[in-house]
From TrEMBL:
It comes from Acidimicrobium ferrooxidans (strain DSM 10331 / JCM 15462 / NBRC 103882 / ICP). The chain holds residues 7 to 237 of 283 of the full protein. Residues 4-231 form the ABC transporter domain. It comes from the Bacteria. This is ABC transporter related. GO terms for cellular component: plasma membrane. Keywords: ATP-binding, Nucleotide-binding. GO terms for molecular function: ATP binding; ATP hydrolysis activity; transmembrane transporter activity.
Length: 231
């Protein structure tokens, strides 16, 4: 995994008649190989933070180090080189991350950009319990199975940071537990740094570290129980 460090990160969305201030000065450190949850009410900037960390676009101001690289300084080409390969983002809703009418194995194979990533496909199918489902068409799978396939697909290029936006929303309890286990496997077995947005108190309780965003800043950090009591 790689460490993440944010300093004074501000993000504005220009809209007619003014700017929406999504983040107003975020300072944050996440160690290499940590698994961290990001919670807080809707509209607080959680998705914005994930999209900035995923190098989808640069922040309006501030610094975002992924390892030794300040991705806020990169241009579009630099960000594109990083996306998927160094940091991978699993968007909210499993279906948007996958080709619904391709098989699980085809989805993983399409994500492979080089020999090293092609070699990862088999191991990832096994790690996420997708071996028996490899020839199933994604659209025929349950939500939990799709989410595990989405996470496995995001890992094919070998990213060292995995970001997930509400990976357990819309899942039943059993599927949710499977997905949480899968994310811990990413951290433990693959050594990746994992940052996930979650609204689910059960998921939050499992995580060793939680961050909240309030008023566009990363606020009180705490252990699962006490922190979640505030929400
Ligand atoms: P969260 O993930 O915590 O719900 P977001 O990061 O999605 O929060 O949004 C933070 C704020 O930025 C909200 O006020 C939201 O309406 C606004 N916002 C998010 N994306 C855009 C966008 N593309 N254009 C304009 N405003 C946006
Ligand atoms: P969530 O809260 O579940 O993260 P949002 O409703 O904040 O989802 O955002 C969903 C999508 O809509 C995102 O791609 C975001 O960029 C966009 N979006 C959110 N708020 C606005 C807005 N005020 N204007 C334009 N696009 C927005």
């Amino acid at each position: 995994g790689l460490p993440l460090r944010l300093e004074g990160v501000v993000h504005l969305y220009p809209i007619p008649g003014g700017d929406v201030v999504a983040l107003r000065g975020v300072d944050l450190r996440i160690q290499a190989g940590e698994i961290v949850g990001l919670l807080g009410p809707s509209g607080m900037g959680k998705s914005t933070l994930l999209r900035l960390l995923a190098a989808l676009y640069p922040p309006s101001a501030g610094r975002i180090w992924i390892g030794d690289t300040d991705i806020a300084q990169l241009g579009p080409r630099g960000r594109r080189k990083l996306r998927g390969r160094t940091v991978s983002l699993v968007l909210q809703g499993p279906a948007v991350n996958l080709l619904p009418y391709a098989t699980v194995e085809q989805n993983l194979a399409f994500a492979a950009r080089d020999r090293a990533s092609r070699h990862r496909v088999g191991g990832l199918l096994e790690l996420f319990g997708l071996g028996p489902l490899r020839h199933r068409v994604v659209a025929t799978l349950s939500g939990g199975q799709q989410q595990r396939a989405a996470i496995a697909t995001a890992l094919v290029p070998g990213p060292r940071v995995l970001l997930a936006d509400e990976p357990t929303s819309q899942l039943d309890h059993e599927a949710r537990d499977d997905v949480v286990r899968a994310l811990f496997d990413v951290q433990r077995n693959l050594g990746a740094t994992v940052v996930m947005v979650t609204h689910d108190p059960v998921v939050a309780r499992e995580l060793p570290r939680l961050l909240t965003i309030r008023d566009g800043r990363v606020g009180a950090e705490g252990r699962s129980g006490e922190e979640f009591a505030v929400l």
